[in-house]
C-alpha cells in the first residue's frame, strides 16, 4: 500500500502488487548497473514513494543504504557531508532537492563519488544536467516519470546534453514491461506531436484505490494485459518514440513531488472570514516554481451562507504560505490574462467581453452585472 501525496485533501491508498514494484526496481537497477559496491542516500521520507527504490534498489543487489538523521533531513550541507563520508554512489530525489545539493556543493568539495543521479516527481530544470556535469563530470543524469498508481516510475530518459529547442527534459521511453498511450477525449490514440492524456499500462499498474471502488473504476480501465491507468497528465509522442510531458489536464499541479489541487486551495481560502474570491496558481520555472494565491475581500454587507459548523478547517501549519501581503491592486494580467476586479463589488471578474453596442472591449461582473472598460 502506497499513499499518494495529498495536499489539502486526504491521500488515497494505492494497492501496488509486489510484482509491479519489483518490475520497476529490477529494471532501474539494470539500467544503472547497480551492484554490491553501490550506496544510496535515503533522502526521501518513508511515506514518499521514491523511498521504495532507496531501500529495495540497493538491498536487492547487496548494496548499502545510508540513512539521514531526522534533524538533518532538510540540511543540504549534511547530505553533502554524508555523501563524502560514506562514498555514496547513487542519488535519488525530486529535482528541488538535487538543486539544493548542487548549491551546497558550489561552496564546498563536490560529491565526486556519485556516478548516477535519478530525478523525478516534478519538472526537471534544464540547468540541472549541466550544473551536475560541471561538478561531477562522469556522473550520469537520469530523469524518470510516472505515477504512484503505476508502481512509482514508468518511463526514463538519460540526459547527455540539453538541446536548445527543449522546453523541458523529455519523459523518454517506457520502462521494461510497461507501456504508454497518448489518447484523445474519445480514447483514440493521438498522432505524433498531437497532445493527449497519458495512459500507463503493463506490469506496474496498481489494483486500484483501497476502499474507493468508484474512484478506481474512473481511473483504471480494462482488465488483464489491457488494463490502463488514466494519469490525468498531458503529453505527446515524438516521431522517434520519445514521450514529452506537457502538464496536467485539470487544475492539479505537482510541486516538489506533491500533488496539489489548486481548486481545493481556492475553496479553503474562500472559506476564510472576510474573503470573497480567491485564485491560486504556480509561477516560476525549474527549481524556482512556487505557489501563489490572491484573495479579494468580501463586501461588508455580504455574510457567508455556510454555517460555522460546516466551514472547512484552516490548512495545517505545513501548508501555510511563507508570506501574506495585502494590496489594493493586484497585477492579475501577469498571471491570469483577462482577469480583473469589478470596481463596485470588488470581486474577481470573468474574462473581458465585448458588448454589441460598443466597439470597445468591456469587463462584465458576474455578480452585479456592472461593466467597465477593459
Please characterize this protein's 3D structure.
- By secondary structure, the chain is an alpha+beta fold.
- It has three domains: about 1-250, 3-Layer(aba) Sandwich (Rossmann fold), CATH 3.40.50; about 260-325, GMP Synthetase, Chain A, domain 3; about 330-374, no CATH class.
- The chain has eight helices and 24 strands.
- The protein has helices spanning about 20-30, 50-60, 75-85, 95-105, 130-135, 215-220, 260-270, 330-335; strands at about 1-5, 15, 40, 65, 90-95, 115-120, 140-145, 155-160, 175, 180-185, 195-200, 210, 220, 230-235, 245-250, 250-255, 260, 275-285, 290-295, 340, 350, 355, 360-365, 370-374.
- The strands form eight sheets. A five-stranded mixed sheet has the order 5-6-7-8-9, covered by helices on one side. Strands 10, 11, 13, 14 and 15 form a five-stranded antiparallel sheet that branches. It has a three-stranded antiparallel sheet with strand order 1-2-12.
- Helix 1 (about 20-30) packs across helix 2 and helix 3 packs across helix 4 (about 95-105).
- The radius of gyration is 23 Å and the shape is globular.
- The N and C termini lie far apart (about 50 Å).
- Residues about 305-320, about 330-340 and about 345-360 have low confidence and may be disordered.
Amino acid at each position: 500500500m502506497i499513499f499518494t501525496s495529498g495536499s489539502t485533501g486526504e491521500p488515497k491508498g494505492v494497492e501496488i502488487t509486489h510484482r509491479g514494484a519489483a518490475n520497476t526496481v529490477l529494471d532501474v537497477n539494470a539500467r544503472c548497473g547497480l551492484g554490491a559496491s553501490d550506496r544510496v542516500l535515503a533522502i526521501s521520507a518513508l511515506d514518499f514513494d521514491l523511498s521504495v527504490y532507496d531501500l529495495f534498489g540497493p538491498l536487492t543487489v547487496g548494496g548499502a543504504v545510508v540513512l539521514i538523521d531526522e534533524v538533518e533531513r532538510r540540511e543540504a550541507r549534511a547530505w553533502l557531508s554524508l555523501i563524502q563520508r560514506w562514498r555514496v554512489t547513487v542519488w535519488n530525489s525530486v529535482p528541488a532537492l538535487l538543486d539544493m545539493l548542487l548549491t551546497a556543493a558550489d561552496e564546498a568539495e563536490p560529491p565526486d563519488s556519485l556516478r548516477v543521479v535519478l530525478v523525478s516527481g516534478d519538472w526537471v530544470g534544464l540547468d540541472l544536467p549541466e550544473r551536475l556535469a560541471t561538478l561531477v563530470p562522469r556522473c550520469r543524469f537520469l530523469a524518470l516519470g510516472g505515477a504512484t498508481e503505476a508502481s512509482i516510475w514508468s518511463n526514463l530518459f538519460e540526459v547527455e546534453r540539453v538541446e536548445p529547442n527543449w522546453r523541458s527534459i523529455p519523459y523518454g521511453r517506457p520502462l521494461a514491461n510497461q507501456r504508454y498511450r497518448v489518447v484523445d477525449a474519445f480514447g483514440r490514440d493521438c498522432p505524433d506531436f498531437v497532445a493527449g492524456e497519458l495512459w500507463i499500462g503493463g506490469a506496474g499498474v496498481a489494483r486500484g484505490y483501497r476502499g474507493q471502488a468508484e474512484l478506481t473504476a474512473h481511473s483504471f480501465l480494462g482488465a488483464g494485459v489491457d488494463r490502463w491507468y488514466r494519469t490525468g497528465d498531458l503529453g505527446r509522442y515524438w516521431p522517434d518514440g520519445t514521450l514529452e510531458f506537457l502538464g496536467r489536464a485539470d487544475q492539479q499541479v505537482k510541486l516538489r513531488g506533491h500533488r496539489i489541487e489548486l481548486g481545493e486551495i481556492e475553496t479553503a481560502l474562500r472559506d476564510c472570514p472576510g474573503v470573497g474570491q480567491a485564485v491560486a496558481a504556480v509561477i516560476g520555472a525549474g527549481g524556482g516554481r512556487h505557489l501563489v494565491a490572491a484573495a479579494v475581500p468580501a463586501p461588508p454587507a455580504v455574510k457567508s451562507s455556510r454555517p460555522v459548523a460546516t466551514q472547512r478547517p484552516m490548512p495545517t501549519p505545513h501548508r501555510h504560505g511563507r508570506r501574506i501581503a495585502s494590496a489594493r491592486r493586484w497585477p492579475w494580467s501577469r498571471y491570469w490574462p483577462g482577469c480583473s476586479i469589478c470596481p463596485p463589488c470588488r470581486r474577481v471578474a470573468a474574462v473581458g467581453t465585448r458588448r454589441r453596442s460598443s466597439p470597445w472591449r468591456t469587463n462584465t461582473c458576474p455578480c452585479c452585472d456592472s461593466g467597465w472598460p477593459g
